[in-house]
Amino acid sequence: MTPSPLLSADEHAKVTAPLETAWTLPPHAYADPAVYVRESETIFRRDWICVAHVDQLPDAPGHLAVQHHDHPIVITRGETGRIRALSNVCLHRAMPLADGAGTGRWMVCPYHQWSYDLDGGLHTAPMMEGAVDFDTAECRLPALAVEVWEGFVFVSLAQEPTPLAAQLEPLRRRIENYRLGDLTIAHTIEFDSPWNWKLLVENFMEAYHHIGPHRDTFQLTNPAAQSHVVDNEGGPWSLLQMPGNTDLDESPDLPFLPGLEREQRADLLAFCVFPYTLVATTGTLATWYQLVPHAHDRMTLRIHILLDADVAADPATEEALAHLVEGVAWIHGEDIPVNEGPWRGLHSPLATQGRLSPYEAAIWQLNQLWVDRVS
């Protein structure tokens, strides 16, 4: 692997060493704004980024406006059900076309009322009759690569990205029983997160810290010592398996997700699709941690709680959902100090690279992908 211009030869060697002798990324990989600029160029604008869950899309025909870093994008679902990703910028004077979700066959610019089909073609442009050589048929919103994988809508800004689904097939086989594409978003909690995005990804993808901030929660049900990370064979994903220490015949709160094997009911899984699509599953639900980085030192976190559609629609679920929302917020509350603390520590002139534990194998896997991209 070619050394990265962002890392010294020694730093690079420590990060790319085998897990048993590997170290973390150096402090400046998190705290230096120039590194974030490099990530934007070599990761965010090239890799597949999850921008939505299919449950957020309106019924066909309709559209959903999303933000992909500095790119306004609109996800459309045509009358045939086909999903497209298009630029959300009018071809006339660069006004964003859509805001939020909408239904109907057209997207109409609020500035001068230019309208577009859901496939990106310009439909009408009022009062352009005097414009010489102006042909609406030649005007089309730029299209982006889009794939729907297990219910998540991924977009890539690359010209010809490597198809995503084939790269994630080993991961799909391991999580297919959870049927994430059939789940619905029952509630969303939003947090302002003033630290580097990689800190949250790393914390999400290791159970080693169950012995610390989660000693009274996850450590009791999914002990750190039982956790293990699957070999991703260099693919752009990582999967952390956290077996449960209880034998559940029935759920005390919500029904189990249909189709799970008995041992999956007590397990906690966490996976990352590089760079920062984070999903955790239990026997009764899934949570999608949607990261929206804004700069090297801040991001927005939206935690989406996904339930079986029938369960979410059942009025009897309302009380259980309220307790669930409180619990999810409590768990993240336990994680906030261990994101804030390292963020402060990384700015110390005495901070250095640290040795990784074998229980942090997922961080090692993701670091290899990071180094490969920024190199």
Task: Tell me the layout of helices and strands.
Layout: H1 9-16, H2 28-31, H3 33-44, E1 49-53, E2 62-68, E3 71-77, E4 83-87, E5 101-103, E6 106-108, E7 115-117, E8 122-124, E9 143-149, E10 152-156, H4 164-167, H5 169-175, E11 183-193, H6 197-204, H7 218-221, E12 228-229, E13 237-242, E14 268-273, E15 277-281, E16 286-295, E17 298-308, H8 309-313, H9 318-335, H10 337-345, H11 361-374
Antiparallel strand pairs: 1-10, 2-3, 2-5, 3-4, 4-9, 6-7, 7-8, 9-10, 11-17, 12-13, 13-14, 14-15, 15-16, 16-17
Key structural traits:
17 strands; Rieske Iron-sulfur Protein; Naphthalene 1,2-dioxygenase Alpha Subunit, Chain A, domain 1; 25% helix; seven-stranded antiparallel beta sheet; 375 residues; alpha+beta
What does this protein structure show overall?
With 375 residues, the chain is α+β, with helices and mostly antiparallel strands. It has two domains: 245 residues, Naphthalene 1,2-dioxygenase Alpha Subunit, Chain A, domain 1 (Alpha-Beta Complex); 109 residues, Rieske Iron-sulfur Protein (3-layer Sandwich), CATH 2.102.10.10. The protein is 25% helix and 26% strand. Strands 1-10-9-4-3-2-5 form a seven-stranded antiparallel β-sheet, with no helix packed on it. Strands 11-17-16-15-14-13-12 form a seven-stranded antiparallel β-sheet. Strand 3 and strand 4 form a beta hairpin. The mean pLDDT is 95.
- From the spread of the alpha carbons, the general shape counts as globular
Order of helices and strands: HHHEEEEEEEEEEHHEHHEEEEEEHHHH
Tell how many strands the DSSP assignment holds. Answer: 17
Structural class: alpha+beta
What share of the residues does DSSP label as strand, in percent?
25-35%
CATH topology (fold) name of the largest domain: Naphthalene 1,2-dioxygenase Alpha Subunit, Chain A, domain 1
The Cα radius of gyration reads 22 Å
Number of helices: 11
Number of domains: 2
Looking at the overall shape, the CATH architecture of the largest domain is Alpha-Beta Complex
- The helical percent reads 10-25%
Q: What's the rounded overall pLDDT mean? A: 95
Low-confidence stretches: none
